[in-house]
Amino acid sequence: MPIIVNLDVVMARRKISASQLADEVGITPANLSILKNNKAKAVRFSTLESLCRVLQCQPADLLEYREDSEQKEED
Questions:
Q1: pLDDT category, 42, cuts 50, 70, 90?
Q2: Pick the residue with more confidence: 13 or 2?
Q3: What is the CA radius of gyration of the chain?
Q4: N or C, which end of the chain has less CB nearby within 10 Å?
Q5: Mean pLDDT of all residues in 35-58
Q6: Please, which residues have CB within 8 angstroms of residue 24's CB and are 6 or more apart in sequence?
Q7: 54 vs 11, 34, 35, 50, 58, CA distance in Å?
Q8: Does 22 score more than 90 pLDDT?
Q9: Gap between the Cα atoms of 8 and 50, Å rounded
Q10: What is the pTM of this model?
Q11: How many domains does the chain have?
Q12: 17 pairs with which residues across the strands?
């Protein structure tokens, strides 16, 4: 998937645990884990907003676009 979630990197920089972040954002630890491990198919803007507020970052700090190598080979 060409969208990479760098949540674990930002969490490490901010020295915040997954359980603390989940509590402060208001999502379950399971859903946070899905985001952290690039398994999410979508993210609500309200969740993204809460993550940015708690982590004091911008959406671009959490999300990155990388061209899919399979798609690139087809072109």
A1: very high
A2: 13
A3: 13
A4: C
A5: 96
A6: 50, 54
A7: 10, 18, 15, 6, 11
A8: yes
A9: 16
A10: 0.85
A11: 1
A12: none
